[in-house]
């Protein structure tokens, strides 16, 4: 815009630039970005800031964590109540947040553990519980009793009806079916052995069929804790493959393995969501800027990796908060600086989701790079699975399209995804050679980092063309180009003719 100057009345030119991203899909389950809410007390205040925050980060499905009265009796009879952890809730606030989320185009899922019951329910129905091989009832943190989900046990139908009540009376768009990762094998009261991974698919199927009897479209997400039992549950009628990541999945290469396994288990295309809680925010508290900076880099690197591998990350919720552990109310609030950085990452993943989430593109890094593989040649230290002190390269290709994500792990520390990371050492003049086996229309690059080295070398979120040279060898047609600078994350797009 043009603005009249002061004093000498000269005209000065001011450029105002702003950008964001959005996606348009035929149904929400094709593109799920999961967030959370866990504060439902009217005394906490409700100015709508939490949902506005989630909207700006393109969250389109929200888990209402621990909203219920009891895990065995989800919908409260009174508006003001305490949940099983003693946390005060206001059902009026919950309904208001659901209405506002719906107005913003977000779907709401009510949290509901598949087998957790209060002690009073267990005492009334001991025949519905699961027991150890020693005959003791399974319990979680001495509060929740683990019930028998087999289809010949009354609990199976009880919890499904509770889910239906959550949809019908509370108004949720679906259910987040939680598990605890244990037990994997248990016994009924009469000593019958049960393998839970064989029972989960039937429970999911029966829940889907029951919810289909209620008006509207309803969504199901099932928690595969520690990547178990993803093979059985992913093929069931869930709307995403959701995995809570715990040790021994501790390193970046484990993140890659989990996502690849989930995509293979789907049988057909389903979104993959990782609930990878970032402990550095909790252990450090985010109270000192240098400490939050380390947690922030761990969040940026992990987000870059998960998105580049074609999955999404459950991390954001409430009003500018991140998850740090499995109990969501123990979140940590981000600084304004980190919120802005993370927002640029979430804008970026939407802006280029046709590259990150294209079903026709496959990740080929480990089979097309290194040793005698000549399809992708790097003139710099790199790895295909997140090794420390290298640039993590993730190559995907399909048809005439190729993409290369570059994630800078140089100088960050170790390759443990759940530890704070040092600021990556800026890398410059990174040369790549790529086999195209055809004509190239263009090579482009973009980055969400928005940083420069003071010499104008920043890349920016909008795709910029890269100069490249074409040449031929006895192995085919190649191109060679140079990435000018890499801070944390950059995306290269190669468009063939």
TrEMBL record:
It holds the Pfam family Glyco_hydro_66. InterPro entries: Glyco_hydro_66 (IPR025092), Glyco_hydro_b (IPR013780). Keywords: Signal. The keyword Calcium does not apply. The keyword Transit peptide does not apply. This is Cycloisomaltooligosaccharide glucanotransferase. It comes from Eisenbergiella tayi.
């Amino acid at each position: 815009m043009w603005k009249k100057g002061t004093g000498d009345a000269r005209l000065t030119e001011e450029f105002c630039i702003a950008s964001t991203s959005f996606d348009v899909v035929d149904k929400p389950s094709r593109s799920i970005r999961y967030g959370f809410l866990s504060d439902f007390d009217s005394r906490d205040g409700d100015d709508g800031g939490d949902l506005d925050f989630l909207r700006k980060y393109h969250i389109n499905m929200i888990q209402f964590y621990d909203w219920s009265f009891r895990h065995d009796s989800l919908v409260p009879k009174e508006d003001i109540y305490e949940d099983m952890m003693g946390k005060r809730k206001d059902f009026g606030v919950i309904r208001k947040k659901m209405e506002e989320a719906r107005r913003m185009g977000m779907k709401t899922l009510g949290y509901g553990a598949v087998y957790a019951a209060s002690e009073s329910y267990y005492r009334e129905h001991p025949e519905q519980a699961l027991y150890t091989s020693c005959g003791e009832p399974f319990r979680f943190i001495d509060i929740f009793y683990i019930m028998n989900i087999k289809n010949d046990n009354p609990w199976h139908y009880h919890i499904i009806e509770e889910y239906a009540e959550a949809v019908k009376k509370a108004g949720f768009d679906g259910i987040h079916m939680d598990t605890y990762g244990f037990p994997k094998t248990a016994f009924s009261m009469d000593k019958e052995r049960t393998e839970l991974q064989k029972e989960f698919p039937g429970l999911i199927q029966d829940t889907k069929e029951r919810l289909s009897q209620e008006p509207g479209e309803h969504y199901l997400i099932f928690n595969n804790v520690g990547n178990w039992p993803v093979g059985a549950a992913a093929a069931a009628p869930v709307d995403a493959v959701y995995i809570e990541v715990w040790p021994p999945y501790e390193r970046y290469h484990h993140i890659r393995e989990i996502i690849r396994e989930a995509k293979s288990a789907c049988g057909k295309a389903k979104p993959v969501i990782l609930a990878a809680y970032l402990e550095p925010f909790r252990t450090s508290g985010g109270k000192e800027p240098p400490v939050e900076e380390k947690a922030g880099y761990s969040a940026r690197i992990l987000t870059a990796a998960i998105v580049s591998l074609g999955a999404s990350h459950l991390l954001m919720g409430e009003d500018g908060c991140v998850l740090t552990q499995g109990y969501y109310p123990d979140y940590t609030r981000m600084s304004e600086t980190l919120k802005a950085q993370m927002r640029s990452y979430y804008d970026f993943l939407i802006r280029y989701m046709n590259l990150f989430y294209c079903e026709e593109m496959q990740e080929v890094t480990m089979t097309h790079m290194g040793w005698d593989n000549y399809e992708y040649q790097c003139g710099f230290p790199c790895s295909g699975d997140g090794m420390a002190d290298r640039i993590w390269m993730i190559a995907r290709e399909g048809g005439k399209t190729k993409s290369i994500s570059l994630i800078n792990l140089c100088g960050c520390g170790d390759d443990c995804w759940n530890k704070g990371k040092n600021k990556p050492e800026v890398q410059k003049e990174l040369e790549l050679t790529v086999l195209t086996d055809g004509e190239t229309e263009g090579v482009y690059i973009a980055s969400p980092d928005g940083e420069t080295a003071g010499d104008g070398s920043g890349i920016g979120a909008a795709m910029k063309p890269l100069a490249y040279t074409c040449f031929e060898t006895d192995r085919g047609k190649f191109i060679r180009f140079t990435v000018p600078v890499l801070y944390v994350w950059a995306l290269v797009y190669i468009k063939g003719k």
